[in-house]
Each structure stands twice: as structure tokens, then as C-alpha cells.
Amino acid sequence: MNSTPAKWYSAVTRYQWLVLIVASLGWVFDAFEGQIFNITRKAMLAEILHQAPDSAGVKEWGDIVLGFFLVGGTLGGWIFGMLADRWGRSPTMIVTILFYSIFSGLTYFATDLWHVCMLRFLVAMGVGGEWAVAAALVAEVFPKEARARASGIFHSTSVLATWMAGITGMWVGANWRYGYLIGVIPALLTLWVRASIKEPERLQAAQKTMGDRVGSFRELFSHPTWRLRALCGMTLAAVGLGTFWGVTVAGQDLMSHLLTKLGWDKADIETEAKFAYGIVQATGGGLGMLAFGPICERIGRKRTFYLMQVLSLIVIPIVCFLPQTHWQMLLALPVMGFVTLSIHAGFAVYFPELFPDHLRATGASFCFNTGRLLAAPILFTSGKLKAAFDLPVAITMLSGLFVIGIAVLSFLPETKGQDLPDA
Would you state the CATH architecture of domain 14-192+200-411? Predict the structure, then answer.
């Protein structure tokens, strides 16, 4: 007699769903803090610099501020990832959410460039730390049969942040300051975290038995297995984050580039570009991230990374050069979002599976957030390439970074169907 296989969610408990909801909400607002600057930076920097939104100064300072954000995310990820293993998941998540909430709200009062740079740096510290805590928590709480899908759902909720940022950007227009006040809202989430999240038993056991090796960078880099995984994971994340800022985010620039050639009005171009990136392309990206978990449960983590990066190398030149009308670009951008953003959900699935209990948040955070630091020079290079070459050519050149991501996978293990390492 044939039995029907149980659904992946059939054994998931109410508490596990609660953890996924809380972690996802933290990540939604976490990602919103990164996206709201991308949406509002022209209006913000034009006001502070007293220059036109399309001026060279606004473009240059936009890249500089993003550099501060990437460095802040790295530092915050290192510190809070380590503390998440030492203090525990719940208290560290509370601190990181308060970090990005409070400093986002203070951006409302920014009147000088150093204000913007410092506040974005501090916001990013909370952003970088929160992801590591939440990703480790979801991986530890869910059973292995549901872990990949739950982690994929967790990371894919960032598309809600992109929608929120896109809608917020269209709503506030030139009144950019109000967009940052919305970032204060997640501070209320900390009350829910404090009341509902319990420390995973496996982390508590590791804290008792591993002593000062818990959350230790010396432990991470002195052990050859963990060191290799950390360095390769870092490189894989750098490719994903570098192509995000250099390629995926440029979806709105591709739409602006096309509409300018088609003779659209300047104000209409700006609104349509925000909609195309913040809503249309983001929807494709969200579907890609949701798809990563089920696909990697079927064919494996590494094969899914291979697949999506190869597809990115194929799709990006097509999106850059093929569309000749507004509606054609609207159809193409979500496909680019699907293949390029899907691997970001893979980071949430894969990185926590690479490290033992006493180093899980430390290792996963090092991979993801040091990738931010390595992405910073890619960001500056991206700006120079886009200034030196026609925009579609520059974006296609930047997509070559996926070749590095494909190569580094050879040094990483397959973790499909395996228990989380405990030592």
C-alpha cells in the first residue's frame, strides 16, 4: 500500500511558526533600512548638498554613504554575531532591532553629510547583526526536513521591505525625512521578541560545554574546517552582495535609461523607475527567494547556487540589451530579480548549516557581513564602470562576478538532508 509523503510543514509546531514570523518581521524592517536610502538618496543628498538630484556630487556621495553602510554592516555583523552565540539569540536580536530603529529615526534630523554617513553606519550595524541572529535561530528551531524552506521563507520576506521602501519613496517624494521615521516602528517588535522567543536548547548546551570557545573568532579561524567554510562563504556572499548593489539595484537605472531614450518626461521617468524596481522587479526577486528553498531540497544546496548563478550570467545581458519598449522592460526586470536575488535566500539556508552550535551565528554572520565589506570596493568600481561605459555594457561586465561565485562552490560541502553540526 502506497503512503503519501508528509508535507514539509506537517511536523512544524506553533512555536516554530512563531519564531519564523518574529524573525521575518525583524528581517523585513532590517532590509527596509537598506532599501529606503536607495529609494530616497537622490532627494536627500540633493537637499543637503544644494545640488540637482542628477548631479555628479549626488551620485558620488550616494556611493560613499553606501560604502559606510556596507562597512557598518560588517562591523555590526562581527560584533552581534559573536554576542548572539555568547549572550543568546533573544537579547542580541532586541539590541540589533533597537540599533537600526533608533538611528533610522534620528536620520530625520540629518542636516550634514557627516550626519548621514554616521547614522547610516550605525543603522547598518544593527542590520548586519539582526540577520545573523535571525538566520541562526530559524535554522536551530526548525526540523531538518523543514529547515531549508523555513530559512528561504525567512529571507524572502525582504521583498516586503522593498515594496515598503518603494511605496514609501513614491509617497514621501522629495520629503525624504518622513521615510526614515517609519524605521522607528520595529522598535515595538522588541517587546514581542522579549516575550515570545526562548533560547534554543542546543545553544544553551553549547554555552555550558564549550566555555570561552563560544562565539570565538580564534576558534573559528584556528579550526581548518570552519576556517575554510568561513572564507569560502564570505566570498560567495561578496559575489551576491556585490552584484546586488552593482547589478540588481541598477534595474531602476535600466528603466530610466530606456525611458530617457524613448523621450519620457523626467518626472514620469523617476516615478516609473521606482515602481519598476521597488514593486515589479522586487516581486520577481521575492519569488526567486521563495523558490530557492524547495529547489535546494530537491537538487541540493550547491547545485541550486550553481543553477541560479549560471542563469544570472545568461539573463542579465538579455535584460540589458533586448527590451526596446516600456512594457518589455517591465517583463524582463522580474526575471532578472528572480535569478539574481534567489541566491540571497540561499545564504540564510546554507550559512547556518556550515557551522557548529557554538559558532553558528558567529560563522554565518562572518560570511554574510564580511561579504558586505568585500562588496564595498565593488560598489565604487560599479560607479566608475557606469560612468565610463554605456549603462547596459557596464552592468553586463559586473555580472561576470558570478563566475567567482560558481568557482568558490567547489570548496564547500553539500548539506542537504544533514543535521546541523554540533561540534
Answer: Up-down Bundle (1.20)
